[in-house]
Specification:
Length: 101
Amino acid sequence: MRLKHLLALAAPFALLLPLSAQAAWPEGGKNSFQQDCQKGAMQNPNVNPAQAKAHCECGANALEKNFSKEELSKLMDRNTPPDNALLAKAQSAIQSCKVVK
């Protein structure tokens, strides 16, 4: 009987483990990324604000899903540019977030 109670208690925590494995953005990093991304996207006259926002949110979520906190910090470091391999990995991760017209 105790085993059932223990399993019932442990099950919700087991379901949360994949969520804890995802990287967390550095403080304010996700918001900063989205703002910078939207500014860049709006440079294209064929992209409207809603498209830019959707694209940048998708990109931020893709990076969060595929990168460690350390990698995200390196990507967001304004003093030291990330290396080419990290940039290529980031571009690959957000490739599926193309703007739909």
